[in-house]
Every structure is written in C-alpha cells, then in structure tokens.
Specification:
Layout lengths: L11 E2 L53 H9 L5 E9 L3 E8 L5 E9 L14 H5 L2 H4 L5 H4 L5 E9 L2 E18 L2 E17 L3 E9 L7 H7 L2 H18 L1
Antiparallel strand pairs: 1-7, 2-3, 3-4, 4-8, 5-6, 6-7, 7-8
C-alpha cells in the first residue's frame, strides 16, 4: 500500500483564459433540512444534494474500526458525487474522495483511522483548541509548499460546533502565478489552495474531512472566493463528516 495515497493533495491547477464556471446550486449552500431547493429548472446548475445524517452527534466508538466497517463506509455512494477509492488498511485507516459531478468541482476527501502511532493520521489529539493550535506547523503541511510561506496566504485554526459536538477546523486560501519551461517554451500557470478541513476523534477513532475546490483556477483569489463561497466548502465538509460518523 502506498501511504502517500492518504495525503490529501490540494488543488493545483493551470488556467488558460477564463474558467468555465457555473453558479453553485442553491442547495449546496445550506444544510437546513427545512429549506427547499429551487423549483426553477436550470440546465446550467442542477441540484447537488449534500448527504445528511439523522441529526445526531457522531456515534461513539469503543474500539478501532474493523475492516468490515471501513469497507462499508467506502461502499457508500451519494447522488451528485463521483467516488474515488484511495486506500484502506486495517491498522493505518481508510481514505475515499467524493467529487461533484457538476461545477464548481468541490471534492471531499474523508480519511478515517484508529488512534494509533501506526495510523495514517497518527495518535489522537484531544479536541482542544490550544492543543491543535500548537500543531499549526504540522497542520500547515496541507498547504502546497509554494504557497505555504507567502505573506498573503491565509491559514486559520479554530473550533466549530456541529450537532452539539466540538470539531477542529482549518481554513486555507492562497494563490500564486508563475511559469515553467516546457518543450515549446515558458508555460504560465496558476497554483492555488482553497480548502476547509475538519478534524475529530472520540479517543478510539479519528476522522479528517478535506473539502476543497478542484476546478479551473480563477484570475484572482477574490474572484475564486466570489464564485465558490467559503460556506460551500464548510457545508460540504460537515455533510460528509456527518454521514461518515453515523456509519462508523
């Protein structure tokens, strides 16, 4: 098994001209079960239905997840998302990615693992902001190296409550341009990262959900955020956190 498969590779995209972007579907921007999606037909942006659990807090596990449980989680499919199986191992954990079939392309990469030194996510850290803030250097490794140390790259560590459960989140946003030498001469490129990541553990098992933009790069960072609001990434991460921790 290639352990590198467990590392969520953040968006690095080349941009040639204006990106082909569709407005995010209405029901991608909320998780309110009482909210109703638009009834107006739209060929440009069909509804993307985010998965939703039963409204309960994450199930409390009492031992490391079995291989059977991890396989069952990987077999789950969700309307509007393509599934990409990355890796699975009884001791190290499991990873699966879900990417929207429509644009904007948002990908949720779900990694689950036992609380163990041998696990891909390492030993579990208490869900305490101070403890996670102390891990900022390690958490920033999710940012591509070329963007990590730029002064205008944003990186946040914080807590968010979901279904009365405290979670740790990080948010990263950065973009840079450059050129590479190809066989036909210099090639301009845009490199970016735009991701919202959730972390949680119950002392026995842990989960990381990376919701990130995986679309054509925009001409500016502000335009990228305007086209795909941060709230879409947050809701996507919470949705896949919700359903996964109901299945484990």
């Amino acid at each position: 098994m290639r352990s590198a498969l467990f590392v969520a590779v953040l968006a690095i995209a080349g941009c040639k001209g204006k990106p082909m972007h569709r407005p995010p579907p209405e029901n991608l921007t909320h998780l309110d079960p009482k909210a109703k999606p638009s009834t107006t037909p739209s060929a440009a942006a069909p509804d993307i239905v985010l998965p939703r659990g039963n409204g309960s807090p994450p199930k409390k596990t009492t031992e490391p997840l079995s291989m059977a449980s991890m396989v069952a989680i990987q077999k789950a499919v969700y309307k509007g998302f393509q599934t990409q199986l990355h890796a699975i191992n009884a001791e190290r954990g499991s990873e699966v990615a879900y990417i929207t079939e429509d644009r904007p392309r948002i990908q949720a990469t779900v990694t689950i693992a036992p609380c163990s030194d041998k696990a891909v996510l390492g030993p579990c850290v208490p869900i305490n902001l101070g403890a996670w803030t102390a891990k900022t250097t390690d958490l920033k490794k999710m940012v591509p190296p070329d963007l990590r140390d730029l002064t205008d790259t944003k990186f946040e560590v914080g807590t968010v409550k979901f279904h009365d459960t405290d979670l740790i989140f990080t948010f990263q946003l950065g973009q840079t341009t450059g050129s590479k030498t190809g066989s036909a001469g210099p090639i301009a490129y845009v490199e970016y990262t735009y991701a919202y990541i959730l972390y949680y553990n119950d002392g026995h098992n842990q989960i990381r959900v990376v919701a990130e933009l995986k679309d054509d790069a925009s001409s500016t960072r502000d335009k990228m955020v305007a086209e795909t609001p941060r709230g879409d990434l947050e809701n996507t991460a919470q949705a896949f956190f919700d359903v996964t921790t109901q299945l484990w």
